[in-house]
């Protein structure tokens, strides 16, 4: 959350910053600002801020604004309302020291009082503003030294970028808990919260770790720890290109990402299936066969959509590999003083690999001796680096705030892991081959589900004015019902509840009326009849039914007011084909209601604050 960009070099700085912010906008979009430095006889900084999206900031940008270094920020407010005064960058009293910040300074009240006593007058309500004032209190002509001294006082999380009007071309950055990446160009340098902001200019990056500080000019960088000890850091090359973060003819990133799923799922399993032995190859787990054989329980830490992927994974692991498994909400687990058993293997699932709740929960269980594997999309992210091993899902950049393709790739990772574990236990080669064939057929299944686009759009048009929805499923489709409801809430702002269909009669059925549609996920497995009974219960009370079911299910078709068919398959794999119609349904409802699909209100991608 919150996006930071810094640039120093010969190009038009304001343009680079604005472009970078547009790419980072999915991280936060309630207000934005930039500071650009000009190297004249009397160097000066120009600061422009605006409430609203980057487009609003762009409108305020003077024609002639230019400079050779600067920083920018797109905000998702945590402390202080959405106002221009609270938008970043923030400055010290002289206006010469300028800071952008991602994170939360937890001791900001104490620091405010301390600085106030020294005569500092604050201009904003943010926690961030203490940082430039603190730096100013130590400044004696060297920005790096002053930043290092100021950092000693800060408690909480931060990724910061800082400039001084009198030190042209120099940017100092520091990281503790919020991502920060250095981009190394030819005669130019970048600093940003994520790679998307600079991939148009360089593919050479350095990932900063917590506790590291970087000092850049257009042709140099030095990285130290907070005690000025020099660090020798590796420069990584990123392999994906600009096209991966463009809309490529689609109206929204979300639509593009939904339609990319046959490819992204195929990528997630590419090179990881051993057809000969009907098992999976997951080199990144860093666990021996013996260690894997000793796993008696799996626990999965995640939040939001990733939690739904983890929950689906837990059902599958239990069913197919006969390993007890449980998905845990990261924000709950961390403060529950969790019991870490010796024979448990832990997973942490996070698209960005930066989700604060999941990261802190992971650290907590690692502290208690757990081995934690990461399932992440973003290569080099904090969770990917700090976990004990894991699986990259290779979805490619996911820009829409509502996750779609990362979800199905996370599912793929769990299906691969289940295959591996099951084959080490009770699953026969023959059964393994059947499972493998089904897994390899998933991209095609998803393609078939996507072909229902127009039909789903028509259904969305019919129902999108409803105020409340219920999403209902049983067994492995229960987490998919939760995911469907979450998608609808996130982007259309329609209230939706996901429930286990069997749980309806224990309370939620009281909500049923002709105004409250229920979306049912109907498998053709051992739960089919039970689910059909649940549909009848709703129907008897006048509730409209939209059913996502299997081709040829005449019973479900006859009962439902609207039916979306997916091809018949091994029922364990329906989570893939059934989540796709729910993604499309949410997308078309949001579109019909004129919502901001890619950047829904109050949300941001990559939740890097608790
Ligand atoms: N605390 C700062 C930065 C917010 C942030 O990082 N959000 O993700 C503020 O409220 O401005």
Summarize the structure.
This protein has 610 residues and is an alpha/beta fold. It is built from 20 helices and 26 strands.
How do the helices and strands line up, and which of them pair or pack?
Elements: E1 3-8, H1 13-24, E2 31-38, E3 44-51, H2 54-60, E4 69-75, E5 90-91, E6 97-102, H3 108-117, H4 130-138, H5 143-151, E7 158-164, E8 171-176, E9 181-184, E10 189-192, E11 204-207, E12 212-217, E13 220-225, E14 236-237, H6 253-259, H7 261-269, E15 273-274, E16 279-280, H8 289-293, E17 297-302, H9 304-320, E18 325-329, H10 330-333, E19 344-350, H11 356-367, E20 372-376, H12 382-386, E21 389-392, H13 405-424, H14 429-440, H15 442-450, H16 453-463, E22 468-473, H17 478-492, E23 495-500, E24 518-521, H18 528-539, E25 545-550, H19 554-559, E26 562-566, H20 574-592
Parallel strand pairs: 17-18, 17-19, 19-20, 20-21, 22-23, 22-24, 24-25, 25-26
Antiparallel strand pairs: 1-4, 1-10, 2-3, 2-4, 5-6, 6-7, 7-8, 8-12, 9-10, 9-11, 11-14, 12-13, 15-16
Helix pairs in contact: 4-5, 7-13, 7-15, 9-13, 9-17, 13-14, 15-20, 16-20, 17-20
The structure holds glutamine hydroxamate.
């Amino acid at each position: 959350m919150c996006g930071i960009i810094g640039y120093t070099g010969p190009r038009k700085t304001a343009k680079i910053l604005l472009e970078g912010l547009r790419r980072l906008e999915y991280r936060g979009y309630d207000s934005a600002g930039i500071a650009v430095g000009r190297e004249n006889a009397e160097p000066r900084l120009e600061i422009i801020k605006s409430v609203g999206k980057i487009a609003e900031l762009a409108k305020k940008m003077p024609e002639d604004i230019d400079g050779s270094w600067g920083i920018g920020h797109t905000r998702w407010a945590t402390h202080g309302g959405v106002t221009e005064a609270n938008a970043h960058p923030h400055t010290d009293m002289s206006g010469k020291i300028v800071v952008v910040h991602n994170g939360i300074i937890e001791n900001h009240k104490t620091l405010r009082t301390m600085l106030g006593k020294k005569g500092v007058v604050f201009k904003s309500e943010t926690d961030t503003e203490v940082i430039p004032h603190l730096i100013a209190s130590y400044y004696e002509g060297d920005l790096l030294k002053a930043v290092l001294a100021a950092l000693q006082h800060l408690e909480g999380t931060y990724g910061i970028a800082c400039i001084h009007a009198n030190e042209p071309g120099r940017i100092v950055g520091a990281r503790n808990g919020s991502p920060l990446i250095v981009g190394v160009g030819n005669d130019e340098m970048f600093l940003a919260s994520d790679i998307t902001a600079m991939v148009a200019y360089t593919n050479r990056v350095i990932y900063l770790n917590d506790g590291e500080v970087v000092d850049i000019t257009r042709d140099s960088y030095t990285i130290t720890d907070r005690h000025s000890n020099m660090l020798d850091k590796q420069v990584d090359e990123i392999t994906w290109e600009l096209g991966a973060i463009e809309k490529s003819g689609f109206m929204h990133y979300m639509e593009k990402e939904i339609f990319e799923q046959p490819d992204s799922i195929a990528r997630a399993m590419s090179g990881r299936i051993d057809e000969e032995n009907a098992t999976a190859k997951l080199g990144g787990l860093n666990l021996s066969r013996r260690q894997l054989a000793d796993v008696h329980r799996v626990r999965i830490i995640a939040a939001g959509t990733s939690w739904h992927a983890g929950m689906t994974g837990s059902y599958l692991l239990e069913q197919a590999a006969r390993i007890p498994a449980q998905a845990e909400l990261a924000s709950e687990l961390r403060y529950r003083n969790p019991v870490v058993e010796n024979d448990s293997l832990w997973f942490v699932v996070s698209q960005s690999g930066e989700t604060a709740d999941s990261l802190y929960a992971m650290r907590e269980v690692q502290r208690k001796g757990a081995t934690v594997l990461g399932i992440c999309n973003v290569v080099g992210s904090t969770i990917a680096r700090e976990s004990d091993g894991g699986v990259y899902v290779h979805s490619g950049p996911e820009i829409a705030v509502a996750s779609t393709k990362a979800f199905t790739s996370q599912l793929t990772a769990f299906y691969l892991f289940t295959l591996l574990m099951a084959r080490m236990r009770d699953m026969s080669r023959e059964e393994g081959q059947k499972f493998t064939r089904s897994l390899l057929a998933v991209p095609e299944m998803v393609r078939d589900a996507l072909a229902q686009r127009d039909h789903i759009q028509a259904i969305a048009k019919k129902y999108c004015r409803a105020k409340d929805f219920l999403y209902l499923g049983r067994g492995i489709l229960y987490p998919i019902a939760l995911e469907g409801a979450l998608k609808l809430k996130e982007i259309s702002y329609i209230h939706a509840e996901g429930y286990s269909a069997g749980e309806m009669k224990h309370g939620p059925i009281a909500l049923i009326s002709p105004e409250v549609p229920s979306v049912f996920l109907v498998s053709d497995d051992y739960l089919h009849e039970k689910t059909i009974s649940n549909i009848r219960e709703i129907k008897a009370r006048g509730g409209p039914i939209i059913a996502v079911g299997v081709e040829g299910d005449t019973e479900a078709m006859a009962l439902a007011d609207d039916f979306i068919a997916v091809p018949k398959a091994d029922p364990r794999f329906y989570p893939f084909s059934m989540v796709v119609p729910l993604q499309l349904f949410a997308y078309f409802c949001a579109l019909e209601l004129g919502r901001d699909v890619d950047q829904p209100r109050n949300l941001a991608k990559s939740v890097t604050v608790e």
